[in-house]
Amino acid sequence: MSAIAQEFEASQLRRLSERGGAPVAGGFSAVLQRARSMQVSPGQMAAALSRLRICPTMTAHPTETKRVTVLEIHRRIYRRLTELLTRTWAPQEEASYRDALLAEVELLWLTGELRLAKPTVQQEIDWGIHFFHEVLFDALPTLVDGLGYALEHQYGLEPPEHFLQFSSWIGGDRDGNPFVTAEVTRYALQRYREAALSKARASLLALIPSLSVAMSVAEPSTRFMAALEDALDHCGSARAAIEQRNPGEPFRQFAAALLLRLEATLSGDPGVVPFGRSEEFRLAVMALRHGLSECGAAAVSRRRVLPLERRARIFGFHTVSLDIRQNATVVNRSLAEILRLLDPADCPMPGTLGWSARLARALKEDPPDFASLQTSEETRDLITLFEVLIDARRRDPAAIGAFVLSMTTSAEDILAVHVLARWATGPFHGGQKALSVVPLFETIADLRAAPGIMTAVLGNRAVRRMIHEAGDSQEVMLGYSDSNKDGGFLASNWELFKAQMALRKVGARHRIDVSFFHGRGGSVSRGGAPTGRAIGAQPPGTVNGRLRVTEQGEIVSARFANRGTALAHLEHLVASVLLHTLEPPGAQRPDEAGEFFEALEALSGLSHTKYLDLIRTPGFISYFDQASPISELGLLKMGSRPARRFGGATRDISDLRAIPWVFAWSQNRHMLTGWYGIGTALSNLARVRGDSGMALLRRMFEGSRLFRLVIDEAEKLLLQSDLGIASLYADLVTDKQSAAAVFGAISAEHDLTREMILRITGEGNLCQRFPEFHARVHEMRPQMEGLHRLQVDTLRKVRASGGPEAATQDDISTLMMTIHVISGALGWTG
Ligand code: PGA
């Protein structure tokens, strides 16, 4: 409830600030003002705008504990608040709105908060589409307006029409999720298509009554009349009915004809010619807009028709571009199986030199006859998936995004996907363009190896040709959470930074535009730093107008459940990318040069070593298992996918996904995923370099955006960690001696990190710089302590009874509720 009130208040404050003439920090007006102060000319601005391609990518990562029913009540509460507080009502009206609000709060209070069953992928697809219907279909055209308004005032320029579009992984992310089959992907594509078409249909239906311009009053242009003739021609026998229903009202007739054609596109009415591609529909809507303007109805065309045209451009007939994700292990396994079936004597093992040569040959070969191969179910499903992709791309090329290859560790991993993609969707299929293959680098070692891997891939002629066909651009995805799990917070941030700089150089050497897809979760440990600052801290020249970023799980509802919040977030995202792009390319920031670089390199190495020492401490895995509710997480039934990629043993953290890792350390309030290792790194650097070391750290705090971001976020997480509460969880560990050793190491590093951060910032207490945040954490402390005590007691009972299966329903409900409420209070689940 308080989060909803805060969202509402923030949105009101933004309005007030704009009305008072002060642009909202980080918004369009503020960034354009800044651009003017940086002497960015209109020509430079136009060039930057033309490059803008920003793509939030929605995922159903299992971090959302709230049921859809509860999310819907939240949204209604927000709406009721807006109705009640943003207009002036007569007393009786006000009482009625208050009552409506009370009814929603009552319902929320009495509604079961948690899911009773694990969601299916189909439900996750519907959950994602819900945000488009409720908010995004209408919000995105408004966002273009917002940019247009600011641009007109500051630069006299028009907004670009196509700078933001959504992608999705929901229904396409099969990495470690056996429920995402080819058939499920086919279903997802169908649902996304229906969503876009039915929104376009509803918009046209709403538009038709207002198009009452009469021919007798305003004569349409001959161009429009020709377009009308063409539209009616496509309606077959329904033409006469349209003309009779709206005699003398050509615009109504035109819109009615478009409506019929859209309906035929949706349901396949044989008498009417459906639209082929969404572009055909968009051009027709544009003809309507121009026709109205030419008749003197400029405001009508702008207010009523332009949003529809913009929607058609942004969402087409596909709503989102659906990405496919699979991991390299599965892809290699399937390709090796296919090659073995084709010729058992010519199939070296993946990972060998022979494998690499075999892939190079396969890239030049014609596709095999897949139907004749007796493959395993896994491989058959991958082949069917490619068939689904060919079909979808034939109907609408924008419906499919990229093939994201997780766990990419070598050039051969990437070549293997290219082989499959070329066989399945390449030149043999009616000239379809090569499918974009996006490697995902997600461990520290893989981030370090990424530039070498990409150099090898781009050195392959066949692949280079495919990339050329795709416009000489290559996207690379960066995994924030797994690199964090692998190397700790500081090392992950630094390696991500360096990898981007190096990959950008590799791209320049091969004359390829390398852009980045940031796989960031909501919590800070999974890359969820504040949007504007996170983008601002990217290395210079690495954004250049292009940014893809994941919007995962609980973040989707936090950002897109209400129009005001969604618009504010998206504006901030676009404005930050624009600002980063406008920064002069030659202006090196100190992060990447000279002493700051060396210091960050040293700090990263030191913190990484310290972090690895902890993970390798004897008894650490048992500590992790027992001193947190990790084994009980499954009770929450959060997402369709399992907690482990390959279903490995519970005592192995290597294939444990990053979300449960962060979840466990958050619930038990150690929060070490956001700070562990930093204290040792800072203090060693200061010790070795003496006074000059401390002075350097302070200069970096002032001058390096990346270092500042790391320190700020680590400091916030240190404040949110609570070793008093953490010790209650440590007490759950049965081997007291190793528990004491692990907890001792964690508390010592906690104290050291706190001390070093305070020495650098010069503050007396943590987070004095963030007073609101500080106050919030302190206000919640007493209630949080009660909740944690209850959770620890319940964990003890549930485990003593033999685990969740044997525990009482009461205890299970209590446990689930404590997990849910603690994550609600922290603001993230994992
Ligand atoms: P993944 O995502 O486990 O789906 O790779 C990691 C994360 O976002 O935490």
UniProtKB/TrEMBL annotation:
The protein's name: Phosphoenolpyruvate carboxylase
Function: Forms oxaloacetate, a four-carbon dicarboxylic acid source for the tricarboxylic acid cycle.
Keyword Transferase: no
PANTHER family linked: PHOSPHOENOLPYRUVATE CARBOXYLASE
Organism: Gemmobacter caeni
InterPro entries: PEP_COase, PEPCASE_His_AS, Pyrv/PenolPyrv_kinase-like_dom
Pfam families: PEPcase
Active site per UniProt: 485
GO biological process: carbon fixation; tricarboxylic acid cycle
Keyword Nuclease: no
Cellular component terms per the entry's GO annotation: cytosol
